[in-house]
Amino acid sequence: MDTRINDIQGVLKKYGQEHLLNHYATLDEEHKKELLDQIENIDFELIKRLYEDTKKEIKSGQDDITPIEYLDKYKLYDDYKYYENIGKKAIKQGKLAAVTMAGGQGTRLGHDGPKGTYDIGLESHKSLFELLSDGLKEEEKKYDVTIPWFIMTSRENNKATIQFFEKHRYFGYQKDKNIFFFVQGELPMIDTEGKILIGEDGLIKQAADGHGGIYESLLKSGMTEKMKQMGIEWVFIGGVDNCLVKMVDPVLMGIAIDKGVTVACKSVVKANPKEKVGVFCKRNGKPNVIEYSEITEEMAEARDEEGELLYGESHILCNLFSVSAIERMGANTLPYHVAYKKASYIDKDGKLVVPDSPNAYKFEAFLFDAFGEVDEMAVLRVKREEEFAPVKNADTVGVDCPKTARELYKKFYNIV
């Protein structure tokens, strides 16, 4: 142990992070080991670079942004059945799996627990997890096939999520046979001086690395290898908070297979030119998503000859990937985006500091930043009222909240 401590101290001194062991002696043996494990797993060069990047001015206007082509699901006409039949065949052959990103907590909803365990207020009192499970089971009956379900949790909610599924007998799934859990990656939070924060538990203060971490997490957890062993070729990745998510869509699959692309995404048309959503585009000739903050007013208002917005295809986190694309994207580190957040921490004197304003940087990758890895991808426009009912905000906000999601869900399923 002395050798291990000495080695770690040497690394910390090199990067100016010696304070991470300030309160080591006060921890019990289990937490001492966990802290040392955490430190040994930190990529200090990456943390140093990320901190240096927070001091740089963000350069904008350097990229060539152009509209992206898309297909409207309900204007495919004769091609609809053609694509659907291709997709149905692949689904029946067991080539599709579903991945749900469920690492978040329900804090913004006033819910104490994983967001997937939240009850949106239906008379059935079903949780988001059960609503998603119902959707998968309905499709399984239709195609007479089992669609494996992979659920990405976080370190924070992994235990509670698995306990919830155990309590509900995995909603009919069998753990480690057709339902699997894996944990999202994390990165240390740092203060404005570049020092890594220590949390109330005496361990490194970490935050989830964003939905862009999905590729690396699938790869490192061995899930992509498991998928290949099961004969899976395609993976639908969506969020847990969309209670109308359609994880099994033969038309989307058929388009991807027919066009020979490894990524196919769903979009809904922007509610209005100023809606604050990321939209699909081409960035320097490659598929991408441009954030609303990057779009000029002229671009936001621009329309084509048919009156459609040129930049009107909203990214709704409903994406289909080939397993090979996930492996390729997981092998390459995505760029990290910085967010300035409030974070409580233990100071050098061992006292808990609870800030009343942002004081720390967290870093996260965005799933769509990997789209530039492919030359082409398919974008399929679907109807918002049929496939997009997110639960992100409390009812007091009035949009993307339990009330709006509940109304959309009940209308879609004709629940009186």
Structure description:
By secondary structure, the chain is of the alpha/beta class. The chain has one domain (42-389): Alpha-Beta Complex (Spore Coat Polysaccharide Biosynthesis Protein SpsA, Chain A), CATH 3.90.550.10. The protein contains 13 helices and 18 strands. The chain has helices at 2-14, 29-41, 44-54, 78-92, 128-143, 158-167, 214-220, 223-229, 250-259, 297-301, 323-330, 384-387, 402-412; strands at 65-66, 71-72, 96-101, 149-153, 179-183, 186-188, 190-191, 206-208, 234-239, 263-269, 279-283, 286-290, 313-322, 337-341, 345-346, 352-353, 360-364, 378-381. The longest helix is centred in the first third of the chain and has 16 residues, at 128-143. The radius of gyration is 23 Å and the shape is globular.
List the strand order in the largest sheet. Answer: 2-18-10-13-9-3-4-5
CATH superfamily: Spore Coat Polysaccharide Biosynthesis Protein SpsA, Chain A
Radius of gyration: 23 Å
| CATH architecture assignment name | Alpha-Beta Complex
Distance between the termini: 65 Å
The count of strands amounts to 18
Percentage of residues in DSSP E strands: 15-25%
Question: What layout of secondary structure does this protein have?
Answer:
Blueprint: H1 2-14, H2 29-41, H3 44-54, E1 65-66, E2 71-72, H4 78-92, E3 96-101, H5 128-143, E4 149-153, H6 158-167, E5 179-183, E6 186-188, E7 190-191, E8 206-208, H7 214-220, H8 223-229, E9 234-239, H9 250-259, E10 263-269, E11 279-283, E12 286-290, H10 297-301, E13 313-322, H11 323-330, E14 337-341, E15 345-346, E16 352-353, E17 360-364, E18 378-381, H12 384-387, H13 402-412
Parallel strand pairs: 2-18, 3-4, 3-9, 4-5, 10-18
Antiparallel strand pairs: 1-11, 6-8, 7-17, 9-13, 10-13, 11-12, 14-17, 15-16
Helix pairs in contact: 4-9, 7-11
